[in-house]
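Leucine-rich repeat-containing protein 47
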Amino acid sequence: MAAAAVSEAWPELELAERERRRELLLTGPGLEQRVRAAGGRLPPRLFTLPLLHYLEVSGCGSLREPGPGLAQGLPQLHSLVLRRNALGPGLSPELGPLPALRVLDLSGNALEALPPGQGLGPAEPPGLPQLQSLNLSGNRLRELPADLARCAPRLQTLNLTGNRLDAFPAALFRPGALPLLSELAAADNCLRELSPEIAHLASLKTLDLSNNQLSEIPAELADCPKLKDINFRGNRLRDKRLEKMVSGCQTRSILEYLRAGGRGGGRGRGKAEGPDREEARRKRRERRKRECGEAEEAWVDEASRLLLRVLHVAENPAPLTVTVSPGVGDVRPFIVGAVVRGMDLQPGNALKRFLSSQTKLHEDLCEKRTAATIATHDLRAIRGPLLYAARPPQDLRIVPLGRREAKAKDLVRQLQLEAEEHRKQKRRQNVSGLHRYLHLLDGKEHYPCLVDANGDVISFPPITNSEKTKIKKTTCDLFLEVTSAASLQICKDIMDALILKMAEINKYTLENKDEGSLSDHEVDAIPGQVSDPRATPGAEQAGSAPLVVEQVRVVDEEGHLKVVYPSKTDLDLAAAHVTVLR
């Protein structure tokens, strides 16, 4: 009787065992109650699936600890994702040893400390010897375990964003401790000092320490041989010249400035006195003028001051409106929209960066589209007003991205067949691409869709957009939508994050425009288009113009306002390098 009760409570485990699956995803509204009944832990039966390579348990507010048996029962685990749960204040028992684990995501929990016995695993021998990616962002950590580098010596990516750290452990930067670490993110913490020993991270390529309490940047940072991208925005640096540079200059210029000793600090301090010191300063000033240029300095001030400008409905001669049909309330009730003008996606891989950032938001904030779904459209291909409605699968027709026109019923069936074939070939529970989101439509008699004034379906969340409104390199004005079955606030938060990312991408594109011009291959890939600044309205002024975010109203069928985005409380960004003009 007890075994039957377990099977009924955890049918996913029985299915995974029967089909010898290598991937398992546990999420959804019913998970919380089942974990609570198991004492805030994962069920012991989960740890009797030794073939598992991927395990994800997300969005469960009652999961306080993984429970004993994980390390012993899942020896082949490659990826462990336990994000947006309630793990903390420590991990009891500790996770490791997990000899095959490569990816560990513990983001969005309530972890405060990871001491020996309640942390990631032992240091001797290493508990996570193959770990490459560790995500601890969005917790309450005040310190990192001193033996982190010994526990995970092959770490390549470390994300510590959004904790309460005031320092890095000295052992993290000792020579040879983390020889493969290429990405270190610790934005939005309380870091007061960065050790010069960071120069021992020989593989470091990306460093994000924005929005901390740093007052100095060690000159030794310039000795990191592979460092390509740094972010120190939002720190009050003593060297005001350097503070201005980190808000806009390229990484190369900042590192050269540090290498030269900076102004009154770094390795140059105390080495030049009297006339010699004055001469050294003069040479450094000349070098900085050549590298950043007076024009770039002016651009830094302007770009920091004019990054995002909100155009209110009352100021807009032709505002876009979305009307919500009552039928969508039972399917996917929440939607917000916005129009963004002034994106420059033509140079280099700007479009690729934009699409990649959208994918990352879907994976992280959107929780693989279970919390919300983003759709981006070429505004020129849309005719407003728009209608957000729910239709029976056999009545909803769309031209999906990269596919021919089809009824939603036929499209979903085709995707299901593709997914099943993929599972048979790979012997995996999870699949890639659009197939990962089909379960979100299970049991739905109507599917949500966004329709323009021509009657064309431009969006079928959470599955796909329309080929008609596909973003291209020539796209400069975009319509953005975020839909959710969970809450309106989630839509707004994700829209904030998307627009901030677009602003950062646009700023980066402008900084590197000369280096990122279109290759011959990229130009050929755009039929009938020539790389001409006149093709993008306002391109000549792009260096001094902000992105314009136009408000979009969402109303019911009687015209009553449901939501307008961005409102006064939206885009309330804490990022120091962003200014929103309203």
